[in-house]
Amino acid sequence: MRSLIDILDLSVRELDELTDRALDIIAHPEKYAHACEGKKLATLFFEPSTRTRLSFEAAMYELGGHVLGFSEAASSSAAKGESVADTAKIVSCYADIIAMRHPRDGAAYVAAHNAAVPVINAGDGGHCHPTQTLADLLTIWREMGRFDHLTIGLCGDLKYGRTVHSLVGAMSRYEGTRFVLISPEALRMPDYVLQSMDRQGIPYAETADLDGAIPGLDILYMTRIQRERFADPAQYERLKDSYVLTPEKMAAAKETMAVLHPLPRVNEISVTVDADPRAAYFRQALNGKYMRMALILKLLDEAKMPTASAEPELVLGRYRCRNRRCICQTEQELAQAFRLAENGVYRCLYCETAAE
Length: 356
Ligand code: NCD
Hints:
CATH architecture of the largest domain: 3-Layer(aba) Sandwich
Low-confidence stretches: none
Shape: globular
Mean pLDDT: 96
Number of helices: 11
CATH superfamily of the largest domain: Aspartate/ornithine carbamoyltransferase
Bound molecules: N-carbamoyl-L-aspartate
Order of helices and strands: HEHEHEHEHEHEHEHEHHEHEEE
Radius of gyration: 20 Å
């Protein structure tokens, strides 16, 4: 069963096809108004969400389908101790496709491997957020007119911000992409993301200086400092005001630069930037709905076809995952499973943390 756990589950050709499909939906919504008649989407949100959940639900309604689900863990059987694996099995009895958000890294993998219907990762802890990347891609296309030869500044919480991890994965596959990683030292991009860029020869620079970086950027992707992922609240307090984008800072940017933000924003973009035509973040939220429509259509279509997915070779029992936020720390009897990744490094199957 084809699911979307990681943005790399989709080939570049598929990303381009989803973008084209979303543009067609924008141009001819009536063509799609009955495309999912009789189908049900379950939105399983164990973590807060406004845009992602509501845009999934709006997407399914606009395709003529139905929606069921829950918007907080407290109103599901997770509150009674039910596992993600069991929840996925149960919901497969009631829905044709699942969109799930969960606070644990790797939870989407577990759901997808236990569900009998396609599972879409709507955010798993601090790990990935592939459908946000789909929204980002359509925004880049509509704002910049191309995916290649772009210098992309990622600013803020690059450690816990799952959206930037997925965005790096997608944009690394287009020619001429360069990244400027702008963060405080304590919130640097995780090693596994840096190593994947090294392996592919993607140029990137790390800096803490937004002012110094801004004039060279084609895209500035701002992120929220992810308060809910900090183990130490005092550290959050120290870092929360690291970056604030203001009209003064925007004055040094290119006329054609686009400002993206997955939202919600706290204070990292001043509201006085909203009137700047380069502020694309509200348009980005709308784009998310169209890309989710395109994705639902694709996965429901593929669910009709038999698939033989190649599972990676696993090492069981030799290592223990040391990521305390990984789903393998809480899910009952979940195997400690590692797969061989780059350069002989073994990584947790669920959250990608390297074995030690
Ligand atoms: C993001 C998320 O949930 O990771 N929000 C979203 O889905 N648009 C970003 C965030 O919460 O900061």
